[in-house]
């Protein structure tokens, strides 16, 4: 009797894993995790040391744009 119950329990446990992939996830869960991973990877910011080096031309362009905006705002306030 115990053997039969043990065999039945093992058969039920084996049937539970048919739809599962790696890590015990279902195919739908696996797809959702893959989508989330891709979304996170697409939104990654490059923080390598090379990307943190300031480019002098970019800094000058940003300063010129800020100065132009400030001049426009000052002129608008005078009128």
Task: Characterize the structure shown.
The protein has 79 residues and is mostly helical. The protein has one domain (2-78). It has three helices and no strands. It has helices at residues 2-16, 27-42, 56-78. The chain is elongated, with a radius of gyration of 30 Å. 0% of the residues are buried.
Keywords:
79 residues, 68% helix, mainly alpha
Question: What's the arrangement of secondary structure elements?
Answer:
Elements: H1 2-16, H2 27-42, H3 56-78
- Intertermini distance: 97 Å
Outline type: elongated
> What is the beta-strand fraction?
under 5%
Order of helices and strands: HHH
Number of domains: 1
Helical residue percent band:
55-70%
- List the uncertain runs: none
Task: Put the structure in a nutshell.
By secondary structure, the chain is mainly α. The protein has helices at residues 2-16, 27-42, 56-78.
């Amino acid at each position: 009797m115990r053997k039969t119950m043990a065999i039945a329990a093992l058969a039920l446990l084996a049937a539970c894993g048919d739809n599962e992939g790696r890590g015990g996830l279902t195919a739908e869960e696996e797809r959702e995790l893959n989508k989330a991973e891709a979304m996170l990877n697409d939104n990654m910011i490059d923080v390598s040391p090379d990307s943190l080096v300031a480019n002098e031309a970019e800094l000058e362009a940003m300063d010129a744009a800020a100065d132009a905006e400030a001049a426009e705002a000052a002129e608008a306030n005078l009128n």
